Amino acid sequence: MPELPEVEVTRRRIEPHLVGRRIRTVRTTAASYLFMTPPETLRRRLRGRTTTALGRLGKYLIAELDDRRRLVIHLGMTGQLFSQTASSLRLLAASTRQALAPEEQVDFRPDAHTHFRLAFDDDGPGVYFRDVRKFGKLLLLEPDERHPRLERLGPDALEVHGELIFRASRKRRVPIKQLLLDQSLLAGVGNIYADEALFLSGVRPGRRAERLTHRECDLLAEAVRRVLRRSIETGGSSIRDYVAPDGRDGAYQFERHVYAREGEACFACGSAVRKRVIAQRGTHYCPTCQK
DNA sequence: ATTCCAACCTGATAGC
DNA sequence: TGCTATCAGGTTGGAA
Known about the structure:
Mean pLDDT: 96
Strand order of the largest sheet: 1-6-7-5
CATH architecture of the largest domain: Alpha-Beta Barrel
Number of helices: 8
Strand content: 15-25%
Number of strands: 10
CATH topology of the largest domain: N-terminal domain of MutM-like DNA repair proteins
Largest sheet: 4 strands, antiparallel
CATH superfamily of the largest domain: MutM-like, N-terminal
Low-confidence stretches: none
Helix content: 25-40%
Structural class: alpha+beta
């Protein structure tokens, strides 16, 4: 699900629910793929702690705790981090959804996919982490501990410069889209915004990286920054599962140019948007506007 | 060194 | 209606 804009919107809106509140209890599901730190360790170490700051590196959220440990959260494909008070159909299984009368609102009740729940001393609303596919990650770092997952990340995609893409793309025969998705080159771009940025810069996703001119790299970097900034402004893309911590949908899906628009008319030239697999991902582009 | 691709999971939906 | 195949905002690790 979530790329840089969705993670940043999540960070901004969950921050007030997390920072400065003392954790009373931690509830988890059983050990599984998403717990890089065993759930019993999380429960033991987090009880009584207070979050002092919430940061972001690429698609990772990093909560700094008052004992100098850090809780790292990655939302994977279907991860949702939200307040107990959030209400959204996206937090419900389709079966539950269908049983609901139209317009009916229900408070979220933790289900089998709600793997991590924080309750606080102030008795206010809890903070929940739900992840159907369990591709998300929870990891507790010791003070000053480094971790390859974070060490490997390139500069944040909001700050990418054409020069970075130009240098990295020399003598690389892979499609330019594959480079954009490489988190060790720049951190935060995923499948939606790779396709969108390539459209905005007029570059075909399948172009060999080494064939891009310096000017095209500049345009591409500018497009990456622009599309990410704009998506953050609109609250991110709610196409499938993404919901903000307050239960609200993002709105960038209404502004997208090519992603998930196969067969529909390009807004710029009217050609039908095409879809094919590039870098093992579904890839959308305009055959006329992108060279 | 670079590129490819299966694996990690579950659910929704398109197609027969 | 019902079953099966395919696809999904991600990342890693190991094979080719």
